[in-house]
């Protein structure tokens, strides 16, 4: 046991001495070894701050309070659809006709190429909410000629008299949307309230804010003031409950109007339908036209 341990100890010492000799021989020669590349750390990824600043450059360049899930605020839209919507909204606020130069100037589009301006003017003439008025002094119209006005959904209705005249000309009993009225008459609510107080308009309002939604023509001659004392007496009359009314009608052998025959039929018990059993045939079925072939002739044998 001791001999094996001695041999292991001797081999270990010899290996250690060999390694020491190698290290000693290599120490005499000058050899430049490149240091190992360090692993990237948080400090190495950030650039050093500038001499005159206290924060790193990357932190100074990063914008603050940016919500990347929302589109950037770039001002007015640059597409032709957005520009056309702005043009319609601007013409709606103008009572006088406007030239194409006025419209392009409002849109800040006068510095664009002439082809783009011409294309926009052509599309503006085709828009259903814009009316182009040609220049009567020119025999041939150009894309710069003429003026433009807003074409409302309900034209020529901008006063109480015009509204009543428009409703009188209607051939059906349909109402007029207040939203359509505001397209050409933005401040029509005050006039609607006045006509309603004069019993010249029937107005349907929203339950949430009481804003007018639809209007109909009314006749003030059909309105009759009811005495307030009569209103008070009418409100004091107590009505019987629905259950008592039904019981009294049934006691008088009368059918109440609240009774639904469909519900009565649904509540009635349904009779169970018995399935009919199919009867089995007991008789033998034979082929009549083959009876002579199936006849027994065994008794005729000799």
From TrEMBL:
Family, as annotated: Belongs to the TFIIE beta subunit family.
Compositionally biased tracts (Basic residues): 272-283
Biased composition (Basic and acidic residues): 289-302
This protein's record includes keyword Transcription: yes
One Gene Ontology cellular component: transcription factor TFIIE complex
UniProt name for this protein: Transcription initiation factor IIE subunit beta
Compositional bias of kind Low complexity: 40-51
PANTHER family reported in the protein's UniProt record: TRANSCRIPTION INITIATION FACTOR IIE SUBUNIT BETA, TRANSCRIPTION INITIATION FACTOR IIE, BETA SUBUNIT
Sorted UniProt keywords: DNA-binding, Nucleus, Transcription, Transcription regulation
Region Disordered, annotated ranges: 16-73, 253-302
A single BP term in Gene Ontology: transcription initiation at RNA polymerase II promoter
Every TFIIE beta domain range: 72-157
InterPro entries: TFA2_Winged_2 (IPR040501), TFIIE-bsu (IPR016656), TFIIE_bsu_DNA-bd (IPR003166)
Subunit comment: Tetramer of two alpha and two beta chains.
Entry function: Recruits TFIIH to the initiation complex and stimulates the RNA polymerase II C-terminal domain kinase and DNA-dependent ATPase activities of TFIIH. Both TFIIH and TFIIE are required for promoter clearance by RNA polymerase.
Localization of this protein: Nucleus
Tagged with keyword DNA-binding: yes
GO molecular function: DNA binding; TFIIH-class transcription factor complex binding
A Pfam family that the UniProt record links to this protein: TFIIE_beta
């Amino acid at each position: 046991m001791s001999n094996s341990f001695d041999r292991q100890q001797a081999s270990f010492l010899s290996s250690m001495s060999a390694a020491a000799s190698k290290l000693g021989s290599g120490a005499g020669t000058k050899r430049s070894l490149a240091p190992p590349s360090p692993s990237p750390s948080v400090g190495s990824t950030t650039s050093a701050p500038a001499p005159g600043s206290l924060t790193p450059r990357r932190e100074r360049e990063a914008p603050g309070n940016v919500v990347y899930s929302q589109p950037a605020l770039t001002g007015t839209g640059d597409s032709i659809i957005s520009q056309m919507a702005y043009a319609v909204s601007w013409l709606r606020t103008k009572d006088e006709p406007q030239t194409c130069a006025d419209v392009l100037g409002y849109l800040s589009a006068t510095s664009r190429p002439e082809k783009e301006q011409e294309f926009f003017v052509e599309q503006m003439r085709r828009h259903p909410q814009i009316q182009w008025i040609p220049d009567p002094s020119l025999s041939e119209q150009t894309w710069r000629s003429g003026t433009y006005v807003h074409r409302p959904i309900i034209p020529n209705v901008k006063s109480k008299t015009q509204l009543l005249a428009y409703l009188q000309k209607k051939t059906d009993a349909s109402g007029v949307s207040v939203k359509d009225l505001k397209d050409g008459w933005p401040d029509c609510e005050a006039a609607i309230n006045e006509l309603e107080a004069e019993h010249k308009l029937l107005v349907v309002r929203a339950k949430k804010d009481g804003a007018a939604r639809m209007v109909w023509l009314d006749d003030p001659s059909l309105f009759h003031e009811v005495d307030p004392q009569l209103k008070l007496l009418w409100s004091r009359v107590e009505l019987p409950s629905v259950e008592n009314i039904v019981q009294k009608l049934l006691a008088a052998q009368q059918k109440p109007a609240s009774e639904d025959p469909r519900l009565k039929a649904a509540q009635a018990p349904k009779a169970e339908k018995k399935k009919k059993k199919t009867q089995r045939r007991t008789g033998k079925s034979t082929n009549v036209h083959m009876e002579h072939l199936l006849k027994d002739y065994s008794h005729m044998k000799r």
